[in-house]
Design brief:
By secondary structure, the protein is an alpha+beta fold. Helices cover 55% and strands 17% of the residues.
């Protein structure tokens, strides 16, 4: 007997009187694909995808095994290969799927059988009701093939799908091997054939649902306790410790890797966090369970929760953390609003102090500030570009330990810090440290730091405040390409000219000296003005100027010749350089004043 000789009419016997259909004297039932599909859907919806998969694969196995036993006993087969090929023919005749064998390699101990499945009812059913799946979905078919081949070959054979319409492929393709020949992930298919009844599957599902229910009850109880923490206005540090003790895990809330609060369940977890967050040693994730959760409210980034454990989180742990993150968010947003309110009070009151100082008023609100007006103070102003990131920079600085006792507030485009006593005397060093930290955290931003004059009374404090803001803006205008720090002592000459000279004369001087160059730049969108400034800043050193401007020496010489011709000046003379340098400083200083809306009597 050959497989190709199998005919539907020869396989089945129909008794019109009894209505019974038999195959090898065993009763058969003609069932619609829609009915099988409904059973399949109900199993998936009841048991879940993985458990339904296992159940249907075992169902297919038993179906294929019985077909194999029947067809083997009904005919005298030419050889074992023909018996193997009878399975695909039988499956096709039953209307389940069209099977097209591809290769069949047989030996005494092993089998390797491949082929195509066309018009799989199972793939069509799955895609129609569940869409494209991430894995193959012809579970009954692979079960049938495995059962049939195991029955007829005499050793365990496992079939699996390499391609499947149910996961978006254009066709279904199966591969079947003896269990001993399976490799890697292929061995995972064995676990689905462990004998399990539907009752045991339902029992297991019930136990899981019961466990989930218990977890929900417990997390509800914990959430009630967390709610009490909110109502009692307990600090964030107590809340995070409470959650850490429940989870037996370390919890850290940070912002740009700056710790806001933490509760380390084990002391070594602190080193793990530092290695992971500060040193970017991400190998810590291989040895520890490190998970992060964003903390946001009303589109405000408040930070993140970092959870460190030494075992994978359970479902209970995840539920508790989700509830805890909600409480942390409320607490942190409340603190953020208070801080914002405090910053606003500082901003408004600081302006009031400078403009209308009243010692009694200051005493009333002195608790808002860390400085005393008659101590040695200096104002440091930071301008961040682009300006929309100013609030992030502000928040970052507020979390820096070195500024925990400093007055930091912002207004307009500036972040202002009051340096007091020793800090005021080390202003340059502190500014350098600030710039270094900001460049590390915000590598895509540029920062312009101005430091005002030293003061020891309210009058000079106001001048220091105005100095710092003006210098910050001035160095942004004159050096837009990179972050810069400048102190009042470096800018004192320009400040004096702006405040002590008739502005009409200043305007006439700079227009007479470099006006032609300004007009040329504006008309041609060139940067000869910056070229001249850079050349003068480097005291006429051609190599240093060319390096700074990324020009060749020849290219720089050409520009300098054009500049001399445009403004009729000899840059080789001391007088020519001095006049140009002074005119540039006046021009940029006046441009700064215009930016800050200070009125002039003459248009520039």
């Amino acid at each position: 007997m050959r497989a190709s000789q199998l005919l539907f009419d020869d396989l089945l016997e129909t008794n019109p009187r009894t209505g019974m259909i038999t195959f090898n004297h065993k009763r058969m039932v003609l069932v619609s694909a829609e009915a099988l599909g409904l059973l399949r859907r109900d199993l998936i919806n009841t048991l879940g995808m993985d458990r339904a998969k296992g159940f249907l694969m075992r169902y297919g196995w038993e179906w294929g095994k019985k077909d194999g036993e029947s067809v083997a006993s009904m005919y005298n087969w030419k050889n074992q290969k023909e018996l193997m090929l009878a399975g695909p023919v039988l499956h096709t005749l039953e209307g389940v799927v069209t099977v097209e064998p591809d290769t069949l390699l047989l030996s005494e101990d092993s089998i390797h059988f491949t082929g195509f499945w066309r018009n799989s009812f199972e793939a069509q059913e799955h895609v129609e009701y569940y869409g494209i799946n991430s894995d193959a979905v012809c579970w009954i078919l692979v079960g049938y093939a495995s059962g049939y081949l195991t029955s007829t070959f005499g050793k365990d054979v496992i079939a699996y799908e390499e391609k499947c319409v149910g996961k978006g492929d254009s066709y279904c393709r199966f591969d079947a091997k003896t269990a001993d020949d399976l490799e890697g992930d292929q061995k995972a298919h064995l676990s689905f054939y462990k004998a399990e009844s539907l009752v045991s599957e339902l029992d297991r599902a019930y136990k899981e649902l019961n466990e989930i229910n218990q977890n929900i009850i417990e997390t509800d109880r914990i959430h009630e306790e967390l709610r009490e923490y909110l109502l009692e206005d307990k600090p964030l540090s107590e809340t995070i410790r409470f959650v850490s003790d429940i989870l037996n895990r370390s919890l850290i809330i940070d912002y740009y890797n700056r710790k806001i609060e933490s509760a380390f369940y084990r002391s070594k977890d602190e080193d793990i966090y530092k290695n992971w967050a500060d040193k970017s040693i991400y190998s810590e994730e291989k040895h520890n369970d490190i998970t992060t959760f964003p903390i946001r409210a009303n589109n405000v980034n408040l930070g993140r929760l970092v959870v460190i454990g030494h075992e994978k989180m359970t479902q209970r742990d995840q539920l508790i953390i989700k509830r805890a993150v909600g409480v942390f968010t409320v607490q942190m947003y409340h603190d953020w609003k208070i801080a914002r309110s405090l910053w606003k009070k500082k901003e408004n009151f600081f302006e009031e102090i400078l403009n209308n100082f009243d010692s009694e008023d200051f005493e009333k609100f002195s608790h808002l500030f860390q400085f005393l007006p008659n101590d040695i103070n200096r104002i440091l102003s930071i301008k961040a570009e682009p300006p929309e990131h100013r609030q992030d920079v502000m928040q970052y600085l507020k979390l820096c330990p070195i500024f925990s006792k400093k007055d930091i507030f912002s207004n307009d485009d500036y972040i202002n810090i009051v340096l007091t006593n020793d800090s005021a005397k080390q202003a340059q060093e502190i500014a350098s440290n600030i710039l270094s930290e900001l460049n590390k955290e915000f590598s895509n931003l540029k920062f312009y730091i101005g430091i005002g004059r030293e003061s020891n009374d309210v009058l000079n404090l106001k001048k220091s405040y105005e100095d710092a803001r003006s210098i910050s803006h001035f160095i942004h205008l004159t050096t837009p390409s990179g972050s810069v720090i400048s102190m009042f002592e470096d800018m004192e000459t320009v400040m004096m000219f702006l405040k002590g000279t008739d502005q009409h004369e200043l305007i006439e001087f700079y227009k007479k000296t470099i006006g032609g160059l300004i007009e040329y730049d504006q008309a041609n969108q060139s940067n000869f003005l910056i070229t001249l400034k850079t050349y003068l800043d480097y005291n006429g050193n051609l190599q240093q100027t060319a390096d700074e401007l990324h020009l060749s020496i020849a290219g720089l010489r050409y520009r300098l010749d054009r500049i001399e011709s445009l403004i009729d000046v000899d840059l080789k003379t001391g007088e020519g350089r001095f006049n140009c340098h002074l005119a540039l400083q006046i021009y940029f200083a006046i441009s700064l004043n215009k930016r800050e809306n200070k009125p002039f009597t003459t248009n520039i």
